[in-house]
Design a protein that fits this description.
Elements: H1 7-16, H2 20-33, H3 38-50, H4 54-67, H5 72-84, H6 88-99, H7 106-118, H8 122-135, H9 140-152, H10 156-169, H11 175-186, H12 190-197, H13 202-214, H14 219-237
């Protein structure tokens, strides 16, 4: 039988209900009784992050880390708070603490890369995204951040390919077509910029351009025609 008064269960109910102020006050009360209560310390950090009180959250993360130096949960909360404050050099230090014991932690590898991006060290950032992608080639976060890094370095074609890979994995990401389109514009390729903005994958662009040429119509009309054909085929299946 579940003990509804168990602190972990009480905190979970407050968190799920979005009652972060109550969660903070409840954890504060627990800490007044037992200052080193790890459940209270961890969750007061979490409540403060959701309340956007990042400096205070960091202070409680540090209290956890004084008790358990390499506590991954506390370090990740601290990283999130530091990122929110724009303290990217300190983010790197906390990331390295995690990676020293868990070198294949994808979340931390991506956080490391993102902070390096903010510090304008895009080449080093790419190294961390590559490490994350070696663990999971379908890591959309790593693909997109690597694309951003290459874009900053002027490697637009590489960036476009990376965005395209991410789009094939998750076509729901609305920012990808816009990003690809802007990069094609920088390359002076207005046709592909238009097609990219419509959410069309790189592999389909040449086919559409050839069809438009054969049908002696604009790319816009060809894209519309292709959409009409898709709608008709769906209707025929109903």
């Amino acid at each position: 039988m579940v003990n509804l008064l168990d602190p972990s269960n009480v905190i979970t109910r407050m968190f799920n209900a979005g009652k972060y102020d109550e969660m903070y006050n409840y954890c504060k009360g627990l800490l007044e009784k037992i200052p080193n209560d790890m459940v209270a310390l961890q969750n007061i950090c979490l409540s403060l992050i959701y309340l956007k009180k990042y400096d205070e959250a960091i202070s409680y993360c540090d209290k956890v880390l004084q008790i358990k130096k390499s506590d991954t949960y506390a370090l990740k909360n601290k990283i999130f708070a530091l990122e929110s404050l724009g303290k990217y050099h300190e983010v790197l230090e906390s990331c390295m603490e995690i990676l020293s014991s868990t070198p294949n932690d994808s979340w931390t590898l991506n956080s490391m890369g993102l902070s390096l991006n903010h510090l304008d060290d895009h080449e080093s950032a790419i190294e961390y995204y590559d490490k994350s992608l070696s663990i999971d080639p379908t890591d959309v976060t790593a693909l997109m951040n690597k694309a951003i890094s290459h874009s900053h370095l002027g490697n637009y074609e590489i960036a476009i390919d990376l965005y395209d890979q991410a789009q094939m994995i998750d076509s729901s990401l609305k920012e990808i077509p816009v990003a690809k389109s802007k990069l094609f514009e920088k390359l002076g390729d207005n046709d592909n910029a238009f097609l990219a903005a419509q959410g069309i994958l790189n592999k389909d662009m040449e086919k559409i351009k050839l069809a438009a040429k054969e049908n002696k119509c604009s790319l816009f009309h060809q894209v519309c025609e292709n959409e009409f054909q898709k709608l008709d085929s769906k209707k025929s299946l109903l």
